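Risk mitigation, structural track. In case the binding assays with zinc ion fail to produce interpretable data, a predicted complex structure has been prepared as a fallback.
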Amino acid sequence: MDDSKTRLEKSANPCCGYVTDTAGDLNSDFLDDAVPNVGDLSICFNCGSLLVYVDGARNKTRSAKRDDIERLNSKQRKLMGKAQKYIRRRGLLHPDGLS
Ligand SMILES: [Zn+2]
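Fallback model:
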């Protein structure tokens, strides 16, 4: 097990109940050691839903709304769309929501 990852508080995503304790930053090479800020957009690795952090330190998110997505530039929007497409094509990793 890799203990160098930054672990966040365990929390269930509001979309599908998938429990996470790490976050990745698309601008970093280290894809699972980010500490998110309030307002950061995220994508659920299980179901591909777009989420927004409401409490980064406690790993709490809500579903993204149109306004949140409009804050992204076109490159970021394309990247999120691509990630969403691949996640949804792959299907749910954990249909019961547990990681
Ligand atoms: Zn989800």
